[in-house]
Structures
1.
Amino acid sequence: MSLEQYDFSFSLELLTDTHVGAGPEGLRPLHELRSGQLVDQARKQYQERTGLDGSPPIATIVRGRNDAPCIPYSGLKGALRRISDPRSHRALFGIEPNKAQGEQGQQGKLFVWAGFPTGSLAEPPDTMPFWDQDKLTFILPHIGSDPRRGTVAEGLLFNAEYLPAGLSFSFEGVFCGRYSEVEAALVPLFNRMAHPDGFEIGAEKTKSHGRVRLTNEQITLHKQVYASDPPRVEESEIGITIAPTVGKSPRRIMLDIQCEGPFLIGDPLRRTGDDAPDMSYLARRDNRPELTGEAIKHHLRRRSAWLERTTDWESRGEADKRDRKLNPGESPGALTSTQRLFGVNGWAGLIAVERIELIDGPSDQPTLPGVMINDFTQGVISGALFEDEVAVDTRYVVTLGMRDRTWKGRDSEETYPNDTDEKLFRRLASDLADNGLVLGRGEGHGFGWFACTGIGHSASEVADKEA
């Protein structure tokens, strides 16, 4: 009788900014995480607006030894299960017990320890809000929207701590099984983890966050065989060459979008000095403007609801009631196509903004003056002027993905997207090609009007269409 064990290590690189949250107990006030004048200013504004002590709450990331950021296996396991072949799930992850049928569970044979950062960042995002080189994170504010009006909801803000794209994490793991299982289950998993598009972990995955990729070209397995007759330990090494592959890939389209005019996604933390503008655009470094997946999904959802409603005005009514909740046991067929595509409480959306890449720009960063309007009279407030620093002539390539999902009811099984969802998605893509999209602040003043100059299913296809 003998037992086999294979020890190994691997590295994951963050392709996009990532938030692996610490859960409800990880919600901490800003002043416990950062210090300085900007924190004092944020704390004062928070107390004035809420009447509460303290400072804005921040959803923090998981940290391990010496307060270093980490990615726990509990946060990685679900992602690996999603991209792996279902036939390998029993060997890799085990099976849950089924008490109703009297079936016992089975422990998986794959074990991975938490991963910690390794190496250094080639391009630290040193102009992102509250970037801290020691903590290796920045803090990004998010804005909730009013579901009735489709506009920003007054006072509805939340903040999250993010690890930056480009950061690498090192992991160690062990597989307790036969080499035939290594070949059939573990090696194909490594290959799928190494696909150039990466795979998703953490929160906000549908808004261009949380994509990682295996970077090893080869993984060495340290094999140990524990034999009982006679008692001995045999050790050897096996080199595995990684051949990136992909499992069931979501349908993707790539949008080539360009804004020749002013564009602004605001970063209030960049207001410093007497001559500084009232609002500067969010930038990662070297004045490169940041386009967020949140802004893209907000526009796509709003446009999708309008297209769905105009398709069948009388019967559909309001196509996107965002306070809609899909109750346990309720079929997603009861939702509108817009709600199925972009999600509601109880149903994760099918469409994700996977990647955003800045191609060109900005050619200039002018400061534009503006005036403040009285909400009651709609007249100009005397002496109330402000200035916005904007980016001009920016171009991005945005990757959208649409996933397949299966809903299992008590007596039925349904697969989405259905034909109606597919039709609406194609119509939305056509609308983007014809009318472009509006992103960021100041759309009523002509800011953020992007033309969609190419739509394809790969970067080369987008380039061919543009040519």
2.
Amino acid sequence: MIEAVIFDLGRVYLPFNRRPMEEAAAKYLDINPAVVHLETREVLGALLEGKMRLLDLYSMITHNLAGNKKAELALQAHLKVYNKTSAKPYPEMVNLVRALREQVTVACFSNLELESAQALQAAGVLDNFDRSFLSCEMHIKKPSLEAYKQVRQYLKLEGNQILFFDDDDSYWQGALRDGWKAEKFTTYKDCIETLSHQDKFLHSSTTNT
């Protein structure tokens, strides 16, 4: 029987597109967005595992620039876009999580930078869940098998008691390796369909969302 439903955040519970954030920072820095994109990609693993902050990334970029561009203002430009987009969850997913929480534990499990996690916390987004598992706090990211094990052990559940939704193939398939039930998230409608085929108590909690 399912005891916990876990959702990824970006492109599942809320919108996410890194490029507009990089473009906003690049506009302030007066550089090609491709530079920000490449620099971000080089250190993305460290960012997501909390070993490095977005501020550190922009400090590295501004260090190599002429003039007096400030890393703090580049980060501010980045987060302004993030707050306008990703800090605003899809209403239907908010309602679904609220309904599910009446029956089971509902958590989010996402690869996220520290400042992005802080922005979501400040916006109250993470309060919608019983528990948040964020790579920047866990210091390990999906699809590492150890990341799934840590989540499962914290919840004190067997893998087959967890149902996980993620839009990234490597991430939901990673959950399968730890014995979880997992599905690729494509649309809200398909998510509801998957839930309706689970235990009866889950079906009853989603029919009115």
